[in-house]
Amino acid sequence: MIKVQKDDFNVNQEIKDISSVNKNIGGIGLFIGKVREGNNSELKSMTLEHYPIMTEKQLENINNEAKVRWNLVDSLIIHRYGKLYPGDQIVLVATFSKHRADALESCEFLIDWLKTKAPFWKLEESNKGKVWVEEKRSDLEAANKW
Amino acid sequence: MHIKYFSWVKDQIGIESESITINENINSINELIIFLKNKNEKYSKAFEDLSVIRCAVNMEVSNLDKKISDNDEIAFFPPMTGG
Which residue of A has its CA nearest to B61? Predict the structure, then answer.
């Protein structure tokens, strides 16, 4: 399932909702991305802009690809947009499988992919002003390994 | 043709979206960029370094040599930074 939303999410509730309808889940791979304050506590806010409809389509595509490549019972991606603050949750990737390898590997695959191929852009605001976050080489390399 | 701009591309051009009527000289994204750069300095600055410009045609990420037509929705943006 894909959710692109402004609101925060409750990880426990999201996991419970999926786990309660499927008793064949043996393990859950989980990644929660959060807004970091930065080394000198300089970040005031982070605004996530996205391309509506394309975002949902892209996330749906990659979620389907994960289901083809790994043996998953279910999977969930929640990605927030709008203005967020240090400590806020940005993204949740949860993968549900019978055995741990499928859950852990597909979770890593999905978050690596999201970093460079989901149409989101981050505007960081600090005392120095506003700066759009640039693509990181390490994120590109992580996505390319799959 | 409907064109959308995101992130700093939007900031530099100063608008989120616009509709243009395509003429026969514009058959690809590259040709559309040349057309836009000729509009004014904001566009020419935004499209100055194409190595940091990505585009989507009808919400599919596309190369700059992609063929386009009048009914397409085009989007220009910098590399994506999700997650």
Answer: A117
* Residues of chain A positioned with their CB less than 8 A from the CB of B61: 117
CA distance A33 to chain B (A): 7
Q: Say if residues A43 and A36 touch (Cβ distance below 8 Å).
A: yes
- Domain hosting A92: range is 2-144
Domain range B2-77, CATH architecture: Roll (3.10)
Inter-chain contact A120–B80, Cβ cutoff 8 Å?
yes
Q: Enter the tokens of residue A15.
A: 């996991």
The ipTM, to two decimals, is 0.94
From B56, which residue of chain A is nearest by alpha-carbon distance?
Answer: A54
Is B82's CB within 8 Å of A132's CB? no
What is the per-residue pLDDT across B47-69, written as a single tens digit (0 to 9) for each? Answer: 999 999 999 999 999 999 999 99
Each residue's pLDDT tens digit, A92-122: 999 999 999 999 999 999 999 999 899 999 9
List Cβ neighbours of A5 (8 Å cut-off, separation of 6 or more).
Answer: A78, A79, A80, A81
Q: Where are the domains of chain B?
A: 2-77
- Which pTM value belongs to this model? 0.93
